[in-house]
Automatic annotation (TrEMBL):
This is histidine kinase. It comes from Halogranum rubrum. Residues 307-331 are annotated as: Disordered. One of its GO terms (molecular function) is phosphorelay sensor kinase activity. It catalyses: ATP + protein L-histidine = ADP + protein N-phospho-L-histidine. Its EC number is 2.7.13.3. Keywords: Coiled coil, Kinase, Phosphoprotein, Transferase. It comes from the Archaea. Residues 7-139 form the Response regulatory domain. The modification 4-aspartylphosphate is found at residue 74. GO terms for cellular component: plasma membrane. InterPro entries: CheY-like_superfamily, HATPase_C_sf, HATPase_dom, His_kinase_dom, Sig_transdc_His_kin-like_C, Sig_transdc_resp-reg_receiver.
Length: 370
């Protein structure tokens, strides 16, 4: 059902089409009050109040004066044609749903109108009272959902800002101060201080993962994949891990080839998570991580091996799932979930195998671009 009181802006230059739409509302047993440029009395507000504009130049004032529930928009008007009409109206109201009216039964035109911000499109000759009211109801609901998602996205962006900067800055300070205390702590307090540093680094990695997950879900279609220099990403993340984890060792086997892969700026998070996991969830006194890269004409494979406890065969297929973690792990499982999601977006693959003689090897394949 549509609301008992509905305020509609009809932008249509054909008087016959405008009258037909009015009759569709009446046929659906709705009282209709038409307001055009010659109307002087204020509308009653009962039923459907239909404001009619026959040219694009009068739309601005109507939108400034009235809060509309829906806009029915003809694409071809005096002074405006085609998709530029949708752009014109969309630029002047971001909250009111738009249904495009077209006399051309062309699906491509309707799809293009939706991509420009309309909620739906109707072919005039195919409109019935039932079709019109159903389209209005769905458009209003879709717009409400769109606005809700927009607000949630903005809230996520704010959370991302807090996570990436405020919390990380505070935890970086904690790690720095804890390391300064190392020479002032006797052997009784060394293990506690090591635990503080280890846990703080874990929090730093978690905040980065959370921020990167937020970035993946708030990205737009404009955030296309592009060539990314793999060598600089890997070398930067290796250096970061060496700074963060004094008790861990990371070795690069061979040379990292200067190749480009298809990815985006979040590629660094893939390897940051793999490196950190290899050290954080390692049961050895000295965690060791080895990195190497292999290439062919089409793909690049990055391998990250560790000397940790390994991963049971029964979990090798599920470890990349959302929230997955081992029974002995204190982690959340979001790191490997993020790795899997990003690599999938890049059109690559990630899997884990046993290391020899102990530990695990994570392999990431990516499309080579250069």
């Amino acid at each position: 059902m549509i609301p008992d009181e509905l305020t509609v802006l009809l932008v249509e230059d054909n008087p016959g089409d405008a009258r037909l739409l009015q009759e569709h509302f009446r046929d659906a047993e709705h009282a209709v009050t038409v307001v055009d440029d010659e109307t002087t009395e204020a509308p009653s507000g009962d039923g459907v109040t239909l404001y009619h504009c026959d040219r694009i130049s009068t739309v601005d004032q109507r939108l400034a004066d009235v809060d509309f529930d829906i806009i029915l928009l003809d694409l071809n008007l005096p002074g405006s044609h085609g998709l530029e009409t949708v752009d014109y109206v969309r630029d002047r109201t971001s909250t009111t749903p738009i249904i495009v009216l077209t006399g051309v039964p062309e699906e491509r035109l309707g799809i293009d109108a939706v991509s420009h911000g309309a909620q739906d499109y109707l072919v005039k000759d195919e409109v019935t009272p039932e079709v019109l009211l159903r389209a209005i109801r769905y458009a209003i609901e879709r717009k409400k959902t769109e606005e809700k998602l927009r607000r949630q996205t903005e809230e996520l962006r704010i959370l991302n800002q807090l996570t990436r900067h405020d919390i990380r800055n505070e935890m970086t300070l904690v790690v720095g101060r804890a390391r300064e205390l190392a020479e002032h702590v006797d052997y009784h307090g060394e293990s506690q201080l090591d635990e503080i540093i280890r846990t703080s680094n874990h929090i730093l990695q978690l905040t980065r993962s959370i921020g990167d997950i937020v970035s993946t879900v708030t990205r737009t279609e404009a955030d296309d994949l592009s060539p990314v220099a793999l060598k600089s990403v890997l070398e930067s993340e290796v250096e970061s891990v060496r700074r963060l984890y004094d008790g861990g060792s990371i070795e690069i086997r061979g040379e990292i080839p200067p190749v480009d892969v298809r990815a985006n700026d979040l590629l660094s998070s893939v390897f940051a998570n793999l490196f950190s996991n290899a050290i954080l969830y390692n049961d050895k006194e000295t965690p060791r991580v080895t990195l190497w890269v292999e290439t062919d004409d089409d793909e690049v494979t990055v391998s990250v091996a560790d000397n940790g406890p390994g991963i049971p065969d029964r979990r090798k297929e599920t470890i990349f799932g959302e929230g997955e973690q081992g029974p002995e792990s204190s982690g959340t499982g979001i790191g490997l979930y993020l790795v899997n999601q990003l690599v999938a977006q890049y059109g690559g693959d990630v899997w884990v195998e046993d290391n020899d003689p102990e530990g695990s090897v994570f392999h990431v394949t990516l499309d080579r671009l250069g």
